[in-house]
Amino acid sequence: xxxxxxxxxxxxxxxxxxxxxxxxxxxxxxxxxxxxxxxxxxxxxxxxxxxxxxxxxxxxxxxxxxxxxxxxxxxxxxxxxxxxxxxxxxxxxxxxxxxxxxxxxxxxxxxxxxxxxxxxxxxxxxxxxxxxxxxxxxxxxxxxxxxxxxxxxxxxxxxxxxxxxxxxxxxxxxxxxxxxxxxxxxxxx
Length: 189
What we know:
CATH superfamily: Jelly Rolls
CATH architecture: Sandwich
Strand content: 25-35%
Structural class: alpha+beta
Largest sheet: 6 strands, antiparallel
Strand order of the largest sheet: 1-2-3-10-5-8
Number of domains: 1
Order of helices and strands: HHEEEEEEEEEEHHE
CATH topology: Jelly Rolls
Helix content: 10-25%
């Protein structure tokens, strides 16, 4: 029950900029009918099996196209113990991660945080961050506000027919409004 309350609070907080700062045109153009996304399903794309930074599975729950770019929510099933993202920056998006299963290590700026089931973390825009999967398996909800091009990034990584080089990964990050600024976060076993 606490998890549902937490997720509802995060979604409500993410909507505040739409209400508070007068982006009425952006909000009013959205579809007015709600929709349900069932457990274990991805909206629009189905399951996106990533290549490159990890081989995790991404399900788009709320697409940026559903919110005119205002918000995106993803569920990630983590299958890549000891792997995660390179240190990178989102210049225009805030990110929230909520751990549903397993454990992860995050670097945000100079700080290191260990997260397990029920923990969440806020990653502000313009602050370098990375994460790595600690447990054998895991699952997280990822919320972006505004949506930006992260959904396109996931589609691109899933569509690759090979494991990309670090240079290719950096270019894909860049073409999707993110900048790689350092190596992945390593675990100390």
